[in-house]
Amino acid sequence: MAKIMLWPDVYREHGHWLPAVNLAKSLQDDGHQVEFMGIPDCASIVAPYQATFRTILEDIYVPGHSVNDRLEPVGQRWKPHHLLPMCRGALDDIFTGANKPDLLVAGYFACLEAAILSHKYDIPIVLLTTYLRHPDDDPAMFAKTKLVFMHEQVAQKIIDTAMGGADNTLEEFLQPLEDCEEIIPCPRDFDYFDDDWKHGEKTHYVEPMILRAPLDGSSLPSNPTGYDPPIPTDKKIIYATSGSQVADYEDMARQFFKNLIAMMNTPNMGSYHLVLAMGDKLLAEFEVLYKVDIGQSTLPSNVTLTAWVSQLEIMKAADAVFMHGGLATIKESILEEVPIVIFPHGKDQVDNALRIERAGVGISPKVDVLTPQALRKLLTEATTSTWIRKSLGAMSGLFAAADAEDPKPSVSIINDVLTGS
């Protein structure tokens, strides 16, 4: 049995953390001891799953940082403030001593941090990449990009301090990221098959890591997010979300949500109910905008606003999902065979829109059709298409087959790393 530490992301991004909960359960079922580590704001993501969580960097990323963004530069998602403290031993209590981990599973977006830890503590790493990246956007390139945009002396200080010497090269520092195994929790069938979309031999598509269960064998609360919005059982449910990174494209999400609400006032929508998961900040804004906060709601009666919701639960009841295009939400939709209408907000979501159309599991309209009437037409198109239903069934079957493999592909890869195979 090995002790494995998981660090899915430096920040509070559900789409990066929740697949790691699935992986943790698979590793534990295989006999390994697993723990998570992260900044204070991330603890609540894994808490419902009874996972052991080690709080780190709490003096830098104090509780509430994910909402309040207290560090300069304000508005920049990734901050470098923790890198030199890590190099100087801020995580010694975790990575030294008799109870230190044998392996670190780090998220793609924490790969620079993983390189530091690999050098400083001589710990093997496996990377968990929770989006479908282009082959050229490999982890070493991602980490290099962060370093080269720093002040040159600061970047060199990080490299030398982590490696315990002087005049180390950037290439030497990045070598652990070139050498490590990388797992992508999505079957290959959903990604591109173009000739220029081929990963190296150390990058592996594995099981989708969608379903989650408590690590202690207990039952999971029906809504592990802690939010419990009233959802009618006698209506067809439309679920809409802009994902856990909604703050990154707030203006687009705001208009997206307003138009969806307006759609619910169009004719013949009485049999539908919209559940809109919009994050804490926009929820507070919309409750003022629609006078919910003063008990004089102007919202259509067939709309429910909530900050978050258990997507795994609501997908079981949903008739359609309107989404931004994050991979985690796409996978959950496919698993439950829910037709997708995707409006990419940014990042990898444009590529995901193309994947959805190529796979036939949904539709990706142009952004200039966001009128209430056009949205209503898209809803009809998505929910009545026999081709979409057939494609969803086929892709869901492929997901289920990958998840049913024993041992799980991810576990086999990690075991090989542990044994040096």
What does this structure look like?
- The two termini are 16 Å apart.
- Helix content is 40%, strand content 14%.
- With 421 residues, the chain is an alpha/beta fold.
- The chain has 2 domains: 3-207 and 405-419, 3-Layer(aba) Sandwich (Rossmann fold); 236-401, Glycogen Phosphorylase B (Rossmann fold), CATH 3.40.50.
- It contains 17 helices and 13 strands.
Topology:
Blueprint: E1 3-7, H1 14-29, E2 33-38, H2 43-46, E3 53-55, H3 65-68, H4 83-87, H5 92-95, E4 103-107, H6 111-121, E5 125-128, H7 139-148, H8 152-163, H9 170-179, E6 181-184, E7 203-205, E8 236-241, H10 250-263, E9 272-277, H11 279-289, E10 303-306, H12 311-314, E11 318-323, H13 327-335, E12 340-342, H14 349-359, E13 362-363, H15 372-384, H16 386-403, H17 409-419
Parallel strand pairs: 1-2, 1-4, 2-3, 4-5, 5-6, 6-7, 8-9, 8-11, 9-10, 11-12, 12-13
Helix content: 25-40%
CATH homologous superfamily name of the largest domain? Answer: Glycogen Phosphorylase B
CATH architecture of the largest domain: 3-Layer(aba) Sandwich
Q: How many helical stretches?
A: 17
Spatial shape:
globular
Tell me the fraction of residues in β-strands, as a range.
5-15%
CATH fold annotation of the largest domain: Rossmann fold
Average of pLDDT: 92
Largest sheet: 7 strands, parallel
- Quaternary organisation: single chain
Biggest sheet, spatial arrangement of strands: 3-2-1-4-5-6-7
Taking all Cα atoms into account, the compactness measure Rg is 22 Å
- What's the CATH C level of the largest domain? Alpha Beta
Number of strands: 13
